[in-house]
Write a structure and sequence with these properties.
heterodimer, A: about 500 residues, alpha/beta, Rossmann fold, Fumarate Reductase Iron-sulfur Protein, Chain B, domain 2, four-stranded antiparallel beta sheet, 14 helices, B: about 350 residues, mainly alpha, 2 domains, 17 helices, about 65% helix
């Protein structure tokens, strides 16, 4: 299949990549930490439920928490050791929250539980494959952390035409997918085969930004050696942020736009991240659940930047020490990329399934200037990849006119940060949009709650009314009965005056 | 922690308001040179005066409004307003005229509406219109180009006229009507535009000096488009709007109007198209809206020039379209990504 003509999405930015810094060395194994802290929620959906108790001995790869509900996955011990605590610990989160975590004191032996590799996937049904992927704890490793098995289940109403492997990695600094493709292309294709089988796709596109020629070459070379993988192409996508965002990538690859409030599946498309694909391959072919991931550690203040295969739960400060990092309190300390990541509250937080990059200090960071008023230049609208009007959104968000922000399609904002980046007045636009989104969701929740409360109250009133009526009815009945017996007695007394006298 | 570091993005582009304003001033340099060459050094004095008054007024107003002075005085917006008004004013405009105009622009048109970013009308044009309505004589008498003037003024006498009033016995030799004005009056006297344009004042095209000033402004405007300080939509739409209505009228009755080329290169056309109508604060912000806005300014400019009471219509046209901006923006919202077209 010849490379199709590529589409383009509106807006976007050309950003300095700074990727060179972390691609000088091959992927290294991060040292085993004495203690691993595993948050029970490392994915979108319901948190997992612990199935171990404090004091239990666990083996590497052993399940320690089970999926709770439909949108949830399992969690595994990344190394052998003893469960030392199940309690609230600080987790990586924009608001610096704490949440329930399982802490494992490792014994240094790194002893595996018995694994069950599958040599021939055709012996399994699609459903069984999805179940295995769920039990292996695999979620989208690109950053969102949506349980992957759900995205491998198109359901009976949809038919998947195209699978897109997202190796775009458009955010500056991050290189974990790039290095994975360079070094483990075969492993990625292993995962791809399983996905193609589970989704029964017609064709597959492996999309890679054209600033990663090594990764493109590695994937093409690997693909050429695998005759059994059919209708699959490596496509070089022009480097433009945010080309790696799902909807934008789909438009580049297929020329189609995902409907607003819709899913890629509505176009017969499913997107998976490169890292996720690799993890699926390991899970099925080697029986290894998701217990580690590649983390890019880079930034201005990192002396030995690179990519590290890190066990989940490893405290970040150990990884930073391993990379010889000189973290300054005032410099940005970010989980994820500089455009969409968030500030970390400290470095004693664990590496989670979605931690693709730890960025310590950026090269051309936003100045600490007070924002000037909006001069309506419209640069933000020009840069917006969702064709929104950030300036109008800002206006209404600032006025807390939440209804108006909805009218201007606030929830189509993907928070890519392009508008804030280009703003000549340095207004933190995305900050306002996040605020407006949270406010709106809180309001909706409140409305729901008050609706429930109202219904309850009305039910209670009508119940009371009913009870009152029943009570009155009973009283009436009793009175009637009483009157009847009284009348009967009087009658009786009239008939036999003797007995009356006796009274 | 400052707001800009609280949440992503942690990167920031190099674009700044000050940088945009600075480039705008750079883009005006060719036109200022042309003005000095054709109409004498007066424009330089007026610019200096206007800028000084503007900065003082800006600082005082910021103080009154309890706003930080440094970031706002250095944003360059007051200087741009001052320079644009100075270029629009006639040469030898007396000092009080300039001062009244600038004070009105900064105090009333800008700060009383909330300062930078909140003014619905272009301050320079508000001031221009105020002066035009209040002092029509001073605002419509222009110096003829230096080469048409029997006694070109030197710097000292220019200074003296601006600050001390006209020199005795020389008032008639230094002032006259603008080409736009002369064209309008003579067409009103039933003369043919094709003949009027042969007079020395017009230099065959659009007026001696005027055409070069306009060409220089257009060159500066192209620089701004290339540097992405302004987008092409408003200037192109405005010039097309002006030319198309002009061409229609010209084809139907060439005896009642000058050619599109004359209107393109005369009066405030290019200043309006590239420097005034493109003021982001007071113009439309959507892409489609900018086309509508620009076309509106162009068409209204022509209508006012030809059928209105004033020789030039750019200032009025811009202000009228400023009023319509909220409406235009509301009805020209772009289609959101993935939105199904109805």
């Amino acid at each position: 299949m010849a490379q199709n003509k590529l589409g383009t999405f509106p807006g976007g930015l050309k950003l300095a990549g700074h990727k060179h810094r972390s691609t000088q060395e091959a992927i290294q194994k991060a040292p085993l930490s004495k203690q691993l802290i595993l948050p029970l929620q490392q994915h979108i959906g319901a948190a997992s439920t612990p199935i171990v108790a404090v004091g239990d001995k666990v083996l590497k790869g052993q399940k320690i928490a089970r999926a709770d509900g439909h949108v949830s996955v399992y969690l595994h011990a990344p190394s052998s050791g003893t469960v030392s605590a199940i309690d609230d610990q600080p987790i990586p989160h924009p608001s610096g929250l704490s949440a329930l975590c399982i802490t494992i004191d490792t014994d240094g032996e790194d002893r595996w539980i018995e694994r069950a590799p599958i040599s021939d996937i055709t012996t399994l049904s699609e459903h069984e494959i999805r179940q295995l992927i769920r039990e292996a704890g695999i979620v989208g490793l690109g950053g969102a952390g949506f349980p992957s098995y759900i995205k491998l289940n198109p359901g009976v109403h949809h038919h998947v035409e195209t699978l897109i492997l997202n190796g775009v990695e458009c955010e500056p600094y991050i290189t974990c997918d790039d290095m994975l493709m360079r070094e483990r292309a075969q492993g990625i294709l292993d995962g791809l085969e399983i996905m193609q089988y589970a989704l029964r796709v017609k064709n597959t596109v492996i999309a890679i930004e054209d600033n990663k020629p090594e990764a493109i070459a590695a994937m093409e070379l690997a693909l050429a050696s695998r005759a059994n993988i059919k209708n699959t192409n490596v496509v070089a996508v022009p480097t433009r942020y945010p080309a790696g965002s799902e909807k934008q990538l789909i438009q580049v690859v297929t020329g189609k736009q995902v409907p607003s409030k819709g899913l890629p599946l509505d176009l017969g498309i499913v997107c998976h991240n490169i890292g996720t694909t690799y993890a699926i391959g390991r899970a099925i072919n080697n029986g290894e659940p998701l217990i580690s991931r590649i983390v890019t550690v880079t930034g201005k203040n990192v002396k030995k930047p690179g990519n590290f295969e890190t066990l989940l739960g490893t405290p970040m400060h150990e990884l930073l020490a391993f990379c010889d990092t000189d973290r300054k309190a005032d410099d940005p300390f970010i989980l994820g990329g500089p455009m969409m990541g968030y500030n970390l509250s400290g470095d004693h937080l664990p590496v989670t399934k979605t931690a693709n990059c730890i960025l310590v200090g950026v090269d051309d960071g936003a100045p600490a200037s007070t924002p000037m008023p909006c001069i309506r230049c419209g640069d933000c609208a020009e840069a917006c990849p969702a064709s929104l009007l950030p300036q109008q959104l800002y206006w209404h968000a600032r006025a807390k006119d939440l209804e108006k922000t909805q009218e201007y399609n606030l929830f189509d904002c993907i928070e890519c940060g392009c508008c804030s980046y280009v703003c000549p007045s340095k207004i933190p636009l995305v900050h306002y949009f996040r605020f407006a989104k949270t406010e709106t969701m809180t309001q909706q929740l409140e409305t729901q709650k008050s609706d429930i409360a109202r219904v309850r109250h009305e039910n209670r009133l009508s119940r009371h009314e009913l009870e009152k009526q029943e009570k009155e009815e009973r009283q009436r009945q009793r009175k009637l009965a009483l009157a009847a017996t009284k009348a009967a007695k009087e009658k009786e007394a009239a008939q036999s005056p003797e007995s009356g006298k006796e009274d | 922690m400052p707001l800009s570091r609280l949440s992503s993005p942690f990167l920031s582009g190099t674009n700044r308001i000050t940088l945009q304003m600075l480039q705008l001033l750079v883009a005006l340099i060719p036109a200022v040179i042309a003005l000095v060459y054709f109409f004498g050094p007066s424009v330089l004095i007026t610019m200096l005066l206007a800028t000084t008054v503007a900065l003082i007024a800006e600082a005082v107003m910021l103080k009154f409004r309890n706003r930080p002075i440094k970031p706002f005085i250095t944003d360059g917006s007051a200087i741009v307003t001052a320079v644009l008004l100075a270029i629009a004013l006639p040469p030898l405009a007396p000092w009080w005229l300039t001062t009244i105009g600038i004070l009105f622009a900064i105090v009333f048109a800008k700060h009383l509406y909330g300062g930078l970013g909140y003014n619905p009308f272009n301050p320079a044009m508000v001031a221009y219109v105020l002066l035009l309505v209040s002092f029509p004589l001073e605002m419509t008498t222009w110096l003829p180009a230096v080469s048409l003037n029997a006694q070109p003024l030197d710097f000292a006498s220019t200074l003296q006229i601006i600050f001390n009033g006209p020199l005795a016995n020389s008032i008639d030799t230094v002032s006259g009507a603008t080409p736009l004005d002369a064209m309008k009056t003579q067409i009103g006297l039933m003369q043919l535009p094709s003949q009027i344009i042969q007079q020395p004042l017009f230099n065959g095209i659009a007026g001696l000096g005027w055409q070069w000033v306009n060409i220089c402004l257009a060159i500066g405007g192209l620089f701004l488009i290339v540097r992405r300080v302004i987008s092409w939509h408003i200037p192109v739409a405005m010039l097309l709007g002006l030319v198309s209505i002009n061409a229609i009228v010209w084809l139907i009755s060439p005896e009642t109007t000058a050619s599109p080329l004359f209107h393109l290169l005369s009066g405030g056309t290019m200043l309006g198209a590239f420097f005034i109508a493109t003021d982001p604060i007071t113009a439309s912000t959507t892409v489609k809206g900018r086309l509508v806005f620009g076309a509106g300014v162009g068409i209204l400019t022509y209508i006012i020039r030809v059928w209105g009471g004033y020789p030039d219509g750019v200032a009025f046209a811009v202000l009228i379209m400023n009023m319509l901006v909220p409406l235009i923006d509301y009805y020209t919202q772009p289609r959101v990504y993935g939105e199904v077209t109805k």
